[in-house]
Amino acid sequence: MRTVGVEEELLLVDPDSGEPRAQSSAVLAHAGRDVAPRGAFEEELHDQMLEFATRPQADLGKLHAEIVRCRAEAARHAREAGCAVAALATSPLPVTPCVGGGRRYRWMAAQYGVVVHEQLVLGCHVHVAVGGDEEGVAVIDRVRPWLPVLCALSANSPFWQGRDSSYSSYRSRVWQRWPSAGPTELFGSAAEYRRRVAGMVATGTILDEGMVYFDVRLSPRYPTVEFRVADVCLDARTAVLVAALARALVETAVREWREGAAPAGHSVSLLRLAAWRAARSGLTGELLHPETLRRAPAAAVVDRLLAHTGEALAADGDLDRVREGAAELLRHGNGARVQRELLERTGSLREVVAACVDRTQAA
Questions:
Q1: pLDDT tens-digit readout, 80-100
Q2: Can you give the pLDDT at residue 42?
Q3: Number of structural domains found in the chain
Q4: 21 contacts: CB under 8 Å, gap ≥ 6
Q5: What is the pTM (predicted TM-score) of this model?
Q6: Origin, by domain of life (predicted)?
Q7: Where does the chain show beta strands of DSSP type E?
């Protein structure tokens, strides 16, 4: 069974006003005082953000428990620093982001200007183990059409600078401003992947391989493929659902590759449209069907993803769990729908943030 790990970026907020707080250094200082720290907490591009990474897990129950634990530890360290954490992919309230002081972040601010200062967006990255670069690139080529569905499931960023953006995942639209972000052409081999990445770095437009922000890429640090399309999920269970589907997509792609099945030849232009539609609609309305790239009800597209990955999910013992999780999302809504319903009920974005702070720590 392939292992899977999750990286989550959390928003640091004032516990009273709900406004983002530039407190990552203080939170990390408290985290560093633990005698035996168990959560891998790191700074991020902006001081209003905190990132953690789980350990690789084969069992989804253990992955869920670790996400819950890491969120709880992040909340504890945040309280010690006078703030709180929220699993929100954008801030509902207006914010002026503070760029971190590291050399890398200073280079990015000088290179990209306002793009950096508008990148206070928070994602969920899923790492799935692969047996080498050739297998990894075979996966990247074959999962491309299914990635927008993961975005729709995880969508958790309807608000931007105090207003409704009209998108379910506005984070993903802001993320596309990076010059290296988005869907990719077919690579065909690890050698071609490496050639293209080296060519991108050689332009000087990006600093290094770590700034190749493909929707899914070979991890620069681990023997994994890294899925980068999901919003940070409001509920830990949704993060596990996305991780389970990512692992099943990897296993399904590897089986297709070993059987000699060619990847779908969808153009990047059409994949961009599918990604836009997923960001706009989420699970409300229609998506572009991954196989036909024609409009279809979101529920039908999710069902097709479950059918596509069904054998892999069943082999890992995850099929029932994933079916139940997907059905629950379709019934009750993803984070974007929850946030909008909270605003409709309370009339206050501050109350939306407060409720999301509580939900971030729920099991």
A1: 999 999 999 999 999 999 998
A2: 85
A3: 1
A4: 12, 13, 14, 48, 82, 83
A5: 0.96
A6: Bacteria
A7: 4-13, 40-42, 49-53, 84-86, 123-129, 159-160, 163-164, 216-218, 224-231, 286-288, 295-297
